[in-house]
Amino acid sequence: MHIAILTFDGFNELDSLIALGLLHRIKRPGWRVSLCCPTPEVTSMNGVTVRAQSLLEEAGTADAVIVGSGVRTREVVDDAALMARLALDPEHQLIAAQCSGTLVLARMGLLGTVPACTDLTTRPWVQAAGVEVLHQPFHAQGNVATAGGCLASPYLAAWIIARSEGLEAASAALHYVAPVGEKDAYVANALGRIGPYLQA
Amino acid sequence: MHIAILTFDGFNELDSLIALGLLHRIKRPGWRVSLCCPTPEVTSMNGVTVRAQSLLEEAGTADAVIVGSGVRTREVVDDAALMARLALDPEHQLIAAQCSGTLVLARMGLLGTVPACTDLTTRPWVQAAGVEVLHQPFHAQGNVATAGGCLASPYLAAWIIARSEGLEAASAALHYVAPVGEKDAYVANALGRIGPYLQA
User: Fold this and answer.
1) Is the pLDDT assigned to residue B191 strictly greater than 70?
2) DSSP B45
3) Contact criterion met (CB < 8 Å) for B149 and A179
4) What pLDDT was estimated at residue B199?
5) Residue of A23, A59, A179, B2 with fewest CB within 10 Å of its CB?
6) How many helices (H) and strands (E) are present in chain B, helices listed first?
7) A 72-101 near B (Cβ less than 8 A)
8) What does the pLDDT look like over A106-156, one tens digit per residue?
9) How far apart are CA A194 and CA A137, in angstroms?
10) Chain A closest CA to B138's CA: distance in Å?
11) CATH topology (fold) of B2-197
12) What is the pLDDT of residue B200?
């Protein structure tokens, strides 16, 4: 199981790295999580330079893909050469988008008529791409999920874990990262967010 | 205002980078937030390599210091040469520790008789260093604060913002990162965690 977290220059640290940390709670052999970038290094919206763990082309063969967020997503979706490197297939992959990552899915036509979540800043651009935006932190239909607000990224990661490893594994990963003294309430709320979308 | 986030090899991505993202919500001239490392590059507990933005010696002149967490903190506190590079002074600096970062403060003698927060794994080691561990996500006394559980790191960052820029600025930063549809409840809970420690 390879989960590629698409991370572009100008990325939001919370969106890519909270998901990465949570997904790494699964210790099963063959479980791989990678920061997936267009170049060997990318620099965040706040000047943090990280090294890529896979390149964009590898997302096409990943089992799950999280499209991270950032301050340059509008440039990304307008960059035809960059977008041409990206092949995503919700028939065979779990596809999840965080905040402005939803704009990437919208522009790739992967949302169809499904409503989506995104952050308050990206909201008008996603709407302009013809997608209804929900006022909630998480939504999924079939193999495609979206989340809005940096701290909704644990919901996205937990959804991927729940879909591939089961709800108990997702619950354990959430419990580990939750604040001390708030763990049970945190896990209950998070599972309440993703649970309804796991039945379908 | 320089806030140094101490980040060692084996670091927990959530603990260093959630705080960094939140602190960068303050856009005031002279406001600087840096990943502060022992070497020009460090690699996280999950294999993510990041470039340092300051070196350990600079923490001594920072206005605020967050001691991040990771899987190698016990090696850090036993490394006399590494610890000798670290000069922290709660008389003149805000000092905050996240999860196993609390062990660093305990071993430096900066907690005295003040109880502290840490994660469930680090708990026995902090207790062995003679510090009472609280079952809550955040605690502060004077210029020293501690937090337990990765997702308590926004509380630590918000405490630093509240102490230097005021409660309204802290509230706005928390609001930005909170999940869509949960923002008001999230901010209210977070301010409820740090508020009681701002009056003293």
Assistant:
1) yes
2) T
3) yes
4) 74
5) B2
6) 8, 9
7) none
8) 999 999 999 999 999 999 999 999 999 999 999 999 999 999 999 999 999
9) 10
10) 8
11) Rossmann fold (3.40.50)
12) 54
Measured on CA atoms in the order A129, A132, A135, A141, is the torsion positive or negative?
negative
Query: What's the predicted TM-score (pTM) here?
Result: 0.97
> Tell me, what's the ipTM?
0.96
Q: Chain B contact for A190, CB < 8 A?
A: no
Domain definitions of chain B by residue range: 2-197
The predicted model gives B131-160 an average pLDDT of: 98
What are the chain B neighbours of A177 within 8 Å (beta carbons)? 14, 149-151
With an 8 Å Cβ cutoff, is B152 touching chain A? yes
Q: Which residue of B has its CA nearest to A155?
A: B179
**B17 in contact with chain A, both atoms CB, cutoff 8 A:** yes
Backbone angles phi, psi at B35, to 5 degrees: -75, 115
Predicted local distance difference test score (pLDDT) of residue A61: 97
- Residue A194: φ, ψ to 5°: -95, -25
Token pair of B93 as six digits: 């600096």
Here the tokens at position B200 are: 């003293």
List, as ranges, residues 121-150 from A with C-beta within 8 Å of B. 135-138, 147-150
User: Residue A200 pLDDT > 90, yes or no?
Assistant: no
Chain-chain contact of B186 with A119 (C-beta, under 8 angstroms): no
Chain B residues in contact with A33 (beta carbon < 8 A): 46
Q: Return the C-alpha torsion angle A13, B169, B15, A17, nearest 10.
A: -20
The pLDDT tens digits for A13-58 are 999 999 999 999 999 999 999 999 999 999 999 999 999 999 999 9
8 A C-beta contact, residue A38 and residue A82? yes
Work out the average pLDDT over A89-116.
Answer: 96
